[in-house]
Structures are given as structure tokens and as C-alpha cells.
Design goal:
The complex is a heterodimer. Chain A is mainly beta. Chain A contains no helices and 11 strands. In chain A, strands 2, 4, 5, 9, 10 and 11 form a 6-stranded mixed beta sheet that branches. In chain A, a hairpin with a 6-residue loop joins strand 4 and strand 5. Chain A is globular and about 45 Å long. Chain B is mostly beta strands. Chain B is built from no helices and 12 strands. In chain B, strands 2, 4, 5, 6, 9, 10, 11 and 12 form an 8-stranded mixed beta sheet that branches. A 4-stranded antiparallel beta sheet of chain B has the order 1-3-8-7, with no helix packed on it. Chain B is globular. Classes of the chains: A mainly beta, B mainly beta. Chains A and B meet through strand 4, strand 5 and strand 10 of A and strand 4, strand 5, strand 9 and strand 11 of B.
Chain lengths: 116, 122
């Protein structure tokens, strides 16, 4: 039972255009969402995150949108650059009332390819 | 940014041997570290939560006697795969959550990852 789903294994976008990566989740208890970028032979690198109390968070070329009612989030990269080519993972977590938080629940990732 | 070092990056061992993997937070302190495993074409799956100075918390289906976790300091957690078998071959990766100015950044739960360890058991 996959609680975080990235339904597109790969996405090809032309350089300079907008890249939109999508993620859906099923667990309504998730309250914090993150996007990670991963290059081959490296660990995931934190990119951007959003709390469930917000619907948008922006950091430079990266914007994450959260639609809680649809249990959907998306990562927008604009303009897309060749260095953005990587695997992008969507992750979610749940805050514990007693302190601390769960480990992250990951999607399977989307391989973004930026074409020159 | 926060850096997490994981060692070794690759291990090949014989069936029945034990393998230790180290995870270090290099420029920050981490009271909590996490261990994940990734099988081919699957997502990262949480195995256990490592808490400094206390016992690790294991996810359902993960054998605690098989995967020993020690978090002896605020910058080091180790995962030991005991009596490894071919089915334990996988990609193991750790993460650490930053503890800043006496309070852990709990609400944000941003985890920083090591580069991972590829374990191959013959």
C-alpha cells in the first residue's frame, strides 16, 4: 500500500520551460511534505518543503504547491536548466504530538530530463 | 548546508558475516537519525529510527536482532547487518535531522541524507 505516489516515472522538458512534477498521497495524517533531488551515486538532497498549513512555498526557481483536499502536491521548476536533470522524490511525514516526527515516506521518484 | 557522511559506500561480503555501516553528521548534531533501505525500482523505505542514548524504534517487519542500531553520540549512528544473507543485499541509506540551538527542528522534519551503502551478500 503506497501512501505516497509519483505516477510519472520520467518527464522530459525543454530547457527554459517549466517542469511540473506531481505527487499524490493517501494518508491524511501527513502534515509536512518535502521534495528531494537525487543524482546517481549520491544521497537525496533536500530541495524544498511545505507544511500542511500552507498551500504554496517558493524558493528561487522552485515552487511547491499543496492541495490538501485533493491530497496532491506539485513541484514547479522555472526556468528549467540542464543541471536540474535528476530523479526527484516526493516525501511526506507526520508530526507526533509527544515530540519528534516519523521518518519520511517516499514516492518512487520521477526522472526529470532537461533537453537542450 | 548540513552534511551527512555514510561509510562505506559499497560492501561485498560472504553470507553469514556481519557488516557495519556508519552514519555521521559532520557539521551539526542530530539526536535522531533514520535508516532506510531501497530495493531496485522501489522507493526508500524506512527501517528504523535511531535515537541518541536510547533504543532504536523499528518499523513493522524489520528484525531488530538482524539490524542492530547504535546511536552512541549526537553525530554518529551505526547499522550492523548481522549474519548477512543474499536477501539482505540492498541499498542502505541514513539520514539525520538537525538539532539546532538546543531545540531540534522538529516541526520542519527536514532530513539530510548520506550517500548510501550498496551491500552485496554473496
Amino acid at each position: 500500500d503506497q501512501q505516497v505516489k509519483q505516477n510519472s516515472p520520467s518527464l522530459s522538458v525543454q530547457e527554459g520551460r517549466i517542469s511540473i512534477l506531481n505527487c499524490d498521497y493517501t494518508n491524511s495524517m501527513f502534515d509536512y511534505f518535502l521534495w528531494y533531488k537525487k543524482y546517481p551515486a549520491e544521497g537525496p538532497t533536500f530541495l524544498i518543503s511545505i507544511s500542511s498549513i500552507k498551500d504554496k512555498n517558493e524558493d528561487g526557481r522552485f515552487t511547491v504547491f499543496l492541495n490538501k483536499s485533493a491530497k496532491h502536491l506539485s513541484l514547479h521548476i522555472v526556468p528549467s536548466q540542464p543541471g536540474d536533470s535528476a530523479v526527484y522524490f516526493c516525501a511526506a511525514s507526520r508530526f507526533r504530538a509527544g515530540g519528534g516526527a516519523d521518518g519520511l515516506t517516499f514516492g518512487k521518484g520521477t526522472h526529470l530530463i532537461i533537453q537542450p | 548546508g548540513a552534511v551527512v557522511s555514510q561509510h562505506p559506500s559499497r560492501v561485498i561480503c560472504k553470507s553469514g558475516t556481519s557488516v557495519k555501516i556508519e552514519c555521521r553528521s559532520l557539521d551539526f548534531q542530530a539526536t535522531t537519525m533514520f535508516w532506510y533501505r531501497q530495493f531496485p525500482k522501489q522507493s526508500l523505505m524506512l527501517m528504523a529510527t535511531s535515537n541518541e542514548g536510547s533504543k532504536a524504534t523499528y518499523e513493522q517487519g524489520v528484525e531488530k536482532d538482524k539490524f542492530l542500531i547504535n546511536h552512541a553520540s549526537l553525530t554518529l549512528s551505526t547499522l550492523t547487518v548481522t549474519s548477512a544473507h543474499p536477501e539482505d543485499s540492498s541499498f542502505y541509506i541514513c539520514s539525520a535531522r538537525e538539532w539546532l540551538a538546543g531545540r531540534e527542528i522538529i516541526a520542519k522534519n527536514i532530513q539530510y541524507f548520506g550517500a548510501g551503502t550498496r551491500l552485496s551478500v554473496l
